[in-house]
Structure formats: C-alpha cells, structure tokens
Amino acid sequence: MTNKNIQKLIDKYLAGETSPAEEQRLALALSLHQDLSEEWESVRLMLGELTLGEAEYDAILKERSHKPSAVIIALRVISSVAAIYLVGLFFYLQQEPVAKVETAYNNKVEQKQPAPQPEYCTEGTPREILMCYLERRQAQPDTYKQLKRMSNENK
C-alpha cells in the first residue's frame, strides 16, 4: 500500500468514516511500515493492538484459505481404515487358539480306521493279490450298511 493510500485511510479514519475492514487494512499497513512519522504512530496507537491483531490474523487466514481436496480426504480415510485393520489383524493373530470342545453328537458316530494297507495289491502271486484285495475290502466299511444303520439310529 502506498503512502498516499495510507494517508487517505488515516484522514478517513480521523473523520470517522472507515469501515472495520478499512481499519484492519490501515492497521496492517501501519504495522508493516518501517519508519512512521509521529502522526502515523499516534494513529497506530489509536487503532490499538486489538485491530492490529485482527488484521494480522486475517492476513494469516488468507494465506491458508485453501481446503484439502476430496482425493486427499479419501486417501486419509482409506489409510486410517487400513491402519486400524492391520492393528486388529496383528492382535487377532497374537491370540492363542481355543481348544475345540467335543459335543455328545461327535462322540456318537464312531468311524473305524482301516488297517494300513499298501495302495495297490500288485505284487506277489495271484492268490496273494486276491487275499490283499479281500482284506482291503473288509477293512473298508460297506456304504450301504453304514447308511442303513445311520437311518435306523435317527428313528
């Protein structure tokens, strides 16, 4: 602001015709000016520290007037949710596994495990192969008999 504009605002202020916004501009201009005359110094004192503080505060707010964009806000939200999820996952994985409780139903059904047999009965004489096949067949439960027994138990 030039000295001429400052002098016009001072004259207007002394006449009582300035608006609050003009008073703030005048206070800011006088605070930024280096060598003040006695008249200007007295006007600066009359404006008071409050008006000067308001003017400086408004100048700072004008510099910070931009708002964060929607993309930045979305990225902040996504990163916050991801951080919370990772912390929760970390604590979940730190827990010791809970032992399974066996119920009465699990104890009812008993399954017989077949005796360990070779996968294929391919070695030996034909009689040995036949005996191996029959032993494997007897070790496996008969599906039809097992289904019939289970249906009788449910009745």
Question: What is the total tally of β strands?
Answer: 0
Low-confidence stretches: none
Order of helices and strands: HHHHHHH
Roughly how many Å is the radius of gyration?
Answer: 46 Å
Number of helices: 7
SS class: mainly alpha
Please outline the helices and strands:
Layout: H1 3-15, H2 20-32, H3 38-63, H4 70-94, H5 104-108, H6 126-139, H7 143-154
Task: Please characterize this protein's 3D structure.
With 155 residues, the chain is mostly helical. Helix content is 70%, strand content 0%. α2 crosses α3. The radius of gyration is 46 Å and the shape is rod-shaped. The mean pLDDT is 75.
Key descriptive features of the protein:
mainly alpha, 70% helix
Short overview:
This protein is mainly alpha-helical. The chain is 70% helix and 0% strand.
